[in-house]
Amino acid sequence: MVVCGDDGLAHRLAAELRGVYGEQVTLVVPAAERTVRPPVVGRARAASAALLDRVVNAAAGRTGGSEPVGGERLVEAAEATEAVLADAGVERAAALALVYDDDETNIRAALTARRLNPRLRLVLRLYNRRLGQHIEELLDQAAALAAGDDSGGGFDASTTVLSDADTAAPALVASAVAGTSKVVQTDGLLLRAVERVPGQGGGAGLATLALLSGTGNGVGGGAGADGGVAGEQGPELLPDAVAVRDAVGRGTVVLEQVSYAGPSLPAGRGGVVPPFASLFSRRLRWSLAGLVGCVAALAVALSVVTGEHPLFATYETLLDLFAINDPALGAPIGRQILQLLAGLVGLLLLPVLLAAVLEALGTFRSASALRKPPRGLGGHVVLLGLGKIGTRVLTRLRELDIPVVCVEAGPEARGLATARRLRVPVVLGDVTQEGVLEAAKIHRAHALLAVTSSDTTNLEAALYARSVRPDLRVVLRLYDDDFATAVYRTLRAAHPRASTRSRSVSHLAAPAFAGAMMGRQILGAIPVERRVLLFAALEVGGHPQLEGRTVGEAFRAGAWRVLALDTAPSGSGSSEPAVEGAYEEAAVASGLVWDLPDTYVLKAADRVVLAATRRGLAELLGRRGERERAGA
User: Fold this and answer.
1) Which residues is 559 bridged to in the sheet?
2) What DSSP string describes 250-275?
3) What percentage of the chain carries pLDDT values higher than 90?
């Protein structure tokens, strides 16, 4: 595996490939003296280089140098040029990850790598999703043409385009909404692992993922000292029904869908035409209502005084109102008084109509401008930062119909156009200045998401928000792991009743990039005490452990379990009718069928979502990769 990058994601990805999958990795990064980076990246680079040196030296039986041994080495280069890629061994590599922060750099290197090795599996980091789709199609087409000319065939030269922002956004959103980042995103759904103590209700969830230790902590306990105390009976991942039934006094970890219990925005948000209530102010609406009431009263009075039909009396009242009726000369005194009153109401109506027109025009003009937080807003999420990560988080929050107020210091931030399109209130100002968070209604907010590119700004905003509201849920984006650990422990000790989370985007995104390099789509990973469950989506065809077997036969306790079947239209188009015939009452959500019956037979054309341990997933898919490499 070859990993090329210029920030912390490259080092985390290399560590993920080595530690989780046991792959040999060549890491291509800029020289420390050539690139100016935040301190955390320099420390990550030094730690990664030191780890590679230890591996290399141990294998070579020497004490210095970093020459390549067994394919594991560190290459320092400012850019991934053709010479650098050739030196990194791209021509012999199984996969290449290009995770530079610049899209153009990744695209240029991908085109070069595809020319050097058409059989190479490519993973690109691109922020522009539309451009990424075109590049993916282009590179796959080039690989297909090369495969047609290659007599050997049978290799996986797929191209996968990922965005660290898109990959990390669901976990950041779940941290703000549900207080946990142990989530999996699949087909538009956000799923989370929930720990349940013995005797706790709440249903069985979508699936039972694990049995906890007798006295150990559950989901996420592996981070820090909290996960170090475990009972005599360790956690049991992916237990069968018998084990779950016989587990007396042990907690469970179940899979549930993430939901938001706070207030949502009213219907009609984000439309091209604003709702009627937003066109006019409350005072103007009351004024119009009062004038309409006066007209109705005058019409009723005229009908009573003259004995005319109510419709005709209303017609005459409107004529008097617009001053186009003949004077009531010689008419009864009551009729004359009503005509004068109608003229007076008409005079009052003119400025009200003018104000209504001006307010409506102003509303339409301001529809393309940034909105201000409305009065009385509460239970919302305050999103600090509308950069690359903040924009994706904002989009995900609005997809879940969660009210958001954004705070951005730069008037030219890339996320302002998205906020304007989604009609999300924005407060422009430096969050370190007094009054900015108050303008975002932080005292009535549900959570604060600080995702700017500055650790100190995120920390300062979190500390100030906690001073305003000590029980506020806070999620921080921090680059430095040591700094993040110290901040988390301090805030947790200072505010034990409040939820505090510190997250690194590269840490959240690395598993998805590593899974794509292995030739499969890793949806996410959920830690259970000191072990990890992986979630993957894959085709049944080519896997004898799944193909032709029923769901019950394919399940292997402690290794893997089929959770759902994707019924989205595919090339074969045969999955959905078969599922409906076999199990008509299955829970279908966003194209996925959950709670499949054990008697359903998995076909080669089926695409399934499964949970697996690291060893189980390696056993399920590793042999296939070894055969392909041996054949190559």
Assistant:
1) none
2) --EEEEEE----S--PPTTTT-SSPP
3) 22
Q: What is the 3-state secondary structure (H, E, C) of 598-630?
A: CCCECCCCCEEEEEEEHHHHHHHHHHHHHHHHH
Least confident residue range of 34-38, 80-84, 546-550, 599-603: 34-38
Q: Which H helix or E strand runs over 162?
A: strand 159-162
Amino acid sitting at position 244: V
Encoding tokens for residue 7?
């920030």
Question: In sequence order, which residues have a C-beta less than 8 Å from that of residue 393 and are 6 or more positions away?
Answer: 169, 172, 173, 383, 449, 451
The neighbouring-strand residues paired with 194 are 254
Strand pairing report for 159-162 and 183-186: unpaired
Three-state DSSP string of 447-509: EEEECCCCHHHHHHHHHHHHHHCCCCEEEEECCCHHHHHHHHHHHHHHCCCCCEEEECHHHHH
The arrangement of strands across the sheet holding 236-237 comes to 183-186, 189-196, 252-257, 207-211, 236-237
pLDDT above 70 as % of the chain: 73
Phi, psi of 300, rounded to the nearest 5 degrees: -65, -45
H helix and E strand count, the chain: 20, 23
List of E strands, 324-466? 381-384, 404-408, 426-428, 447-450
* DSSP-assigned beta bridge partners for residue 528: 219, 531
Q: How many angstroms separate the CA atoms of 321 and 344, rounded?
A: 8
The pLDDT mean for the chain works out to 76
pTM of the model: 0.63
User: How far apart, in whole angstroms, are the C-alpha atoms of residue 233 and residue 215?
Assistant: 9
Between 273 and 420, name the one with better pLDDT.
420
Any residues with CB less than 8 A from the CB of 434 and at least 6 apart, and which?
A: none
**Could you read off the pLDDT of 266-285 as tens digits, one per residue?**
434 444 444 555 567 778 88
Looking at this protein, which amino acid is placed at residue 194? V
Confidence of residue 450 (pLDDT cuts 50, 70, 90): very high
